[in-house]
Design goal:
The protein is an alpha/beta fold. The protein has a domain at 6-20 and 41-118 and 126-140: Vaccinia Virus protein VP39 (Rossmann fold, 3-Layer(aba) Sandwich). 32% of the residues lie in helices and 27% in strands. It has 5 helices and 7 strands; from the N terminus they run αβαβαβαβαβββ. The protein has a 7-stranded mixed sheet with strand order 3-2-1-4-5-7-6, sandwiched between helices. The chain is globular and about 40 Å long.
Length: 180
């Protein structure tokens, strides 16, 4: 697995064999970053259900200001830290906690995000709960992007409109924005 764009382009990342994760395919990641490229610079990013951290690392590689990585898997947390150390990146925080605890902590710390990557395990029904908590805790700025990778086509939600949506094989990338 490699970084596909930005400052760290072509640098190798560990974690494509991390048990219980499903790394985003290179062509999907490349297309996704192209879709949101203009929104990344100086963004505060959350990579929730981070796995190897490759999506957050892509954001940092494309000049995001800060990235928070959250995954409850200890091994994933160690791989993320190792990948960031190899790249000599300093603008991050890795949280090895359940996503609900991370989101509550962000709320208590009054953090807001410009981009949130959501790629939870497909069959554990965590996506809706994560989105609900992000909205309930008001963790998004007015122009924020909520980037979801799923195996189903998502619909518009009460507070979120679909900004962009693409299908890649059996995966969908849906990018939401807050409704006006």
């Amino acid at each position: 697995m490699r970084v596909i764009s930005g400052l760290y382009k072509n640098r190798l990342l560990k974690g494509d064999d991390l048990l219980g994760t499903r790394p985003t395919m290179a062509r999907v990641k490349e297309s996704l970053i192209a879709l949101i490229q203009d929104c990344i610079k100086d963004a505060v990013v959350l990579d929730l259900f981070a796995g190897s951290g490759s999506l957050g690392i892509e954001a940092l590689s494309n000049q995001a200001k800060m990235c928070y990585f959250c995954d409850k898997n200890n091994k994933a947390g160690e791989i993320i830290k190792s990948n960031l150390k190899t790249l000599n990146v300093n603008l991050f925080k890795v949280l090895i906690k359940d996503y609900q605890i991370c989101l509550k902590n962000f709320f208590q710390d009054k953090l807001k995000f410009d981009i949130v990557f959501l790629d939870p395990p497909y069959h554990e029904n965590m996506l809706k709960k994560a989105i609900d908590l992000i909205l309930d805790y008001e963790l998004l700025n007015k122009e924020s992007l909520l980037v979801c990778e799923t195996d189903i086509k998502l619909e518009e939600l009460d507070k979120l409109k679909i900004w962009k949506q693409k299908k890649y094989g059996d995966k969908y990338i849906t990018i939401y924005r807050l409704k006006e």
